[in-house]
Write a structure and sequence with these properties.
Strand order of the largest sheet: 5-4-6-7-8-9-10
CATH architecture of the largest domain: 3-Layer(aba) Sandwich
Distance between the termini: 53 Å
Number of helices: 9
Helix content: 25-40%
Oligomer: single chain
Order of helices and strands: EHEEHEHEHEHHEEEEEEEEEEEEHEEHEH
Largest sheet: 7 strands, mixed
Number of strands: 21
Shape: globular
Number of domains: 2
């Protein structure tokens, strides 16, 4: 039995997987650091992800679809509603705005109501009274895909961590789902095991999956640490900037710049003959120069960007994540 590809018809693919007409769904990775790959998610992994999420949230509910359904986050919105016999309310076509979001929330049926968003959407909603009210009216807002500054977090927000290979978020607010295991390997990478793991990749290269003592683990590209069972993600291993012998995690700097008023920030390393790499920040939005300078001053000396490149929009992938190679090219171009 084959896996149903989410694109071009996510509704049909999810339905086929959950009714036994397909072995599961094939979903494209974000492609934030390279060519997207198709991840094969079996029916039982999808059902486990939905069941464990509902258990953590305290029950099933109606769903708002505000993110692309051909990505794992949107596909899970469809799966949650299907398995619960609940309603999916879809935002009207067009750009994401606080007004459109509030109107969609107002159309949702009564009862427990959930939404899945990305951090950029939450930031936009938090800046608009109608958006803030709509967020507050929901029982839970699942936010994944990138880090979010603490001051942007409404009370209903649940920070999720996971990826296509784990059937989306399997860690909520730092705590893994029941039955999901976390460990940190010797290189500092986050490893995940449990019932939500993918069967593998469509191209057959499953080297990212490792069996240890009979347990199958997915080796993520993220660096992290575990404290009292709670996961703290430090950033992607391949995003670390080596400058003058120091290792810099971009996520910490990006959050500092966003707290200072940047709509979005991408911190990258560009080649430097003396330091190996130097830290450059690509900043979106009209953040005040003085506020950004104050934010940078609060960082360790080796973390401080040597230069800030202003842009109308930080480059992003089709899935909405920061396109690091494109941001690095933009930062390097400014050096010429």
């Amino acid at each position: 039995m084959t896996y149903a590809r989410l694109a071009p018809d996510p509704d049909q693919a999810v339905s086929a997987a959950l009714t036994g007409r397909a072995a599961g769904i094939a979903v494209a990775t974000s492609g934030s650091t390279g060519t997207p790959r198709l991840v094969l998610l079996p029916d039982d992994a999808i059902r486990a992800a939905v069941s464990l999420s509902s258990r953590r949230l305290g029950g099933e509910g109606h769903q708002l679809l505000a993110i692309p359904a051909d990505r794992i986050g949107g596909a899970l919105v469809l799966a949650r509603a299907t398995l619960a016999g609940a309603t999916v309310t879809r935002m009207a076509p067009g750009p994401f705005t606080a007004t459109a979001f509030a109107e969609a929330v107002a159309r949702m049926p009564a009862g427990p109501r959930y939404a899945s968003l990305v951090p950029t959407q939450v930031r936009r909603l938090a800046q608009d009274p109608a958006g803030r009210d709509a967020l507050a009216s929901l029982d839970a807002v699942l936010v994944g895909g990138a880090a979010l500054p603490e001051h942007d977090a409404p009370g209903t927000l649940v920070r999720t961590y996971g990826m296509s290979e784990t059937c989306g978020g399997c860690v909520y607010d730092g705590l893994a789902f029941d039955g999901v295991q976390l460990r940190i390997d010797d290189d500092g990478r986050v490893l995940i095991a449990g019932p939500t793991l993918a069967a593998g990749y469509a191209d057959g290269d499953d080297s990212a999956f490792r069996t240890v003592d009979g347990e199958r683990w997915f080796v993520t590209s993220d660096l992290g640490e575990l404290r009292d069972g709670r996961l703290r993600v430090l950033g992607r291993a391949d995003h670390v900037i080596n400058t003058g012998g120091f290792k810099v995690h971009p996520q910490r700097i990006e959050l500092a710049l966003e707290r200072a008023g940047a709509t979005a920030a991408a911190v990258v390393g560009v080649p430097d003959p003396e330091w190996g790499e130097r830290v450059v920040a690509v900043v979106e939005g009209g953040a005040d120069d003085a506020a950004l300078a104050d934010a940078i001053a609060g960082l360790a000396p080796y973390e401080r960007p040597r230069r800030i490149v202003r842009t109308d929009a930080v480059p992003r992938t089709a899935g909405g994540k920061i396109d690091r190679p494109a941001a690095r090219a933009l930062a390097s171009e400014e050096d010429r």
